[in-house]
Amino acid sequence: MTIVTHSRTAKRGTYTPSAALVKDVLAGRAIAIARMISRAEEGYPEAAEALAELYKHGGNAHIVGITGVPGAGKSTLVSALIKAYAAEGRKVGVIAVDPSSPYSGGAILGDRVRMSETAAAGGAFVRSMATRGHLGGLTRATLQAVDVLDAAGYSPIIIETVGVGQDEVEVVTAAHTVVVLSAPGLGDDIQAIKAGILEIADIHAVSKCDKPEASATVSALQGMLSLGGGSGSHWTSPVLPVSAVSGERIAELKDAIGAHWAHLHDTGELAARQRAICKTRILGTARHLFQQKFQQESATLETHIRAVTERRMDPSVAARALLGWEEIR
Asked: Which of 61, 171, 180, 191 is most exposed, with the fewest beta carbons within 10 Å of its own?
């Protein structure tokens, strides 16, 4: 039987069951990795058991989140980091989360084409994933894709988020190390975003360090950090000016990422971060399954919507009823 495979580019060929892909994923074969990520992204029930098996083989990768406002140069920075890690013989994985196309629901690739060219030269694996309307900078399948790359032996695994300002804070629940990238000359814009994404940074990077405004942006960030409260960690977030185009100070940023990873291990903070990631994933999956269940059972949901609309029930009681905690009255 021939059907359309689940790779990003649809081709007609023999379908391989997900369970049969596990061995090839563990061996690091790119085609198997791409197919498994596609099935995770599409939510194929057939892939659940294989993904669960791959999860057991992970837990070794350093997950790095790259976030920041749109236009800061995140994709260019990721490309520069791929080159830096490749020069050390590191096997880098990248999950680049993009805005969804309003027509197809697919990812708008943009700079991902150039990033993929860099990845091909450096032996990295880059996958672009659409948000599909998901708020918070990450998609539901982002961490499943990370699991696949982790099991395949990639480390670090970089999550580049969509670039939507304060909604980016979700990346802190997915990564061990969070790099927030700012562009020079933001001025008052820094004040507008500092209550959101700036506080989640383990490392601050300022792009285009060759511009004269870069030093002012670095000073502004350092000033705001000095006024901020403690995070409970003994780590002091550095502010590093970099140029992804020229490569200036990219090695220093790479070293800072490595230093933070070592800090997490040395202080025992890694266990707390892992626990927070697991908690978020369990609760997030529960929310997804809850929504999925009542989208499929629309009549049940409609009954409660009608009761709330007619003021026979308030929304909190209706929610409890959907969970089976209350009987409808």
From this structure: 191
